[in-house]
User: What shape does this take?
Amino acid sequence: MGRISERLASNDLIGLDTSIFIYHFESNRKYIQITNEILTCIESGETQAITSVLTIMELSVRPWQLGKGHIARKYEALLSHFPNLQIIDIDREIGRWAARLRAEFNLSPPDALHLATCITNGASAFISNDRLLKRVKGILEIIILDDFLSP
Assistant: This one.
């Protein structure tokens, strides 16, 4: 389907799911090349990105479970200082949108909050690896990592 950077170029602002960071920080062999490409586009300023504050929670759970709070804090620092990436706090408007998305598309609370964060902040696309999010048609473009893997 082509390089993901070409797809990102058509979006001024994209949202990132937690899975992008998990794959990248864990150097997941299947996805590291594509997460490198995404994060390079963001770091260089070719694309602006946002992620929900939920990403900090989701990304930090395992390190805290393992008693490695220093890793959880490192992940948060990396996200907080990453160029051209904003971490968006959840507010009332995002909560309202999340409720509508849950009602209409039967999304989980975290997925609804991630997508509502994108919608309320003007993102035109959301990158994830959760195909179930494709049901949110006509509201937000959902870009799936697996679609960009070499066969």
User: Anything to note?
Assistant: The chain has one domain: 4-146. The chain has a mean pLDDT of 95. DSSP finds seven helices and five strands in the chain. Strands lie at 13-16, 48-52, 85-88, 125-128, 141-144.
